[in-house]
Amino acid sequence: MSGIRGKVIAITGASSGIGEAAAVHLAERGARLVLGARREDRLTAVVDRITAEGGTATGVLVDVTRRQDLRRLTDTAVERFGRLDVLVSNAGTMAVSPFDDLRQDDWDAMVATHITGFLNGIAAALPLFRRQRSGHFVTIGSTAAHTVRSPQGVYAATKTAVKVLTEGLRQESGPDLRVTLVSPGFTHTEGVGKGAGPAVAAALIEQRDAIAMPPSAVAAAIGFAIEQPDGVDVGEIVVRPTAQS
Ligand code: NDP
Fold it and tell me: Is 121 touching ligand 1 by the criterion CB < 6 Å?
């Protein structure tokens, strides 16, 4: 199987930003989508938009920190479409802050969303992919795993963990599965600065508005990895704005 048409693709964090752009990009190319996120109104709006444009999508309320929610996402793919070809682990939070602010809830949320959330996705999809003898994990990392910039220490650490886990998974995946890390740089989404303290948020939003690339650029990178033939595994794609140092 190659290309995107007909593939059953689950995406976490599909209610806005990169996840929403990936859903739209893949739906336009004939994928059948199972979309997960926590905000029901925003998720429904994405599903409705795709459906109105002739695509195929269904929404599932998912908090990636909960094991059972990831299982519900993959179960929905099998119940509705008979299989799952790709899991895009994209859900994330960029509530960055200096260590002195001691925003421990934000630290916990980044660890839970990026690390536990990714592991929950592996646990939900891997047995299914093994039974099918095919499947593709696509994980959204960050250039923060390549270059640490203050005050992004905790965020960068969790994205570094995602990078390491993805490589470990790739090494164990065997000849039937594919594992891809897509590492975006500054991307113009509502998530930039969201949940951060006012000063950090203002600085990030100013920088975003000056240099960020559109989320469609990341969506295209995700699509490129997915559309390769079964035996071709794209390991990592780093995509950043030219203006990002
Ligand atoms: P957004 O805030 O627009 O998107 C984040 C998505 O994740 C939302 O759909 C949100 O939905 C979802 N989400 C957050 N927490 C959870 C959770 N616990 N369970 C399920 N869904 C969750 O930001 P982006 O699109 O920018 O971020 C997407 C990914 O891209 C993240 O992993 C981020 O770290 C990464 N990234 C972003 C960059 C950027 O510059 N924008 C750069 C590099 C990487 P809801 O709240 O409805 O659950």
Answer: no
Sketch the domain layout of the chain as residue ranges.
8-239
- CATH superfamily for domain 8-239: NAD(P)-binding Rossmann-like Domain (3.40.50.720)
Model confidence at 2, pLDDT cuts 50, 70, 90, reads low
Q: What is the pLDDT of residues 159-215, one digit of tens each?
A: 999 999 999 999 999 999 999 999 999 999 999 999 998 999 999 999 999 999 999
- Dist. CA 79 → ligand 1 center (Å): 26
CA-based max dimension of the chain: 51
Instruction: Give the pLDDT confidence score for residue 1 in this predicted structure.
Output: 60
Whole-model pTM: value is: 0.98
Task: Say if ligand 1 is within 6 A of residue 181 CB.
Answer: no
Report which residue type is found at 184.
Answer: P
Give the position, in ligand 1's atom list, of the atom nearest the Cα of 19. 25
46 CB less than 6 Å from ligand 1? no
Catalytic residues: 155
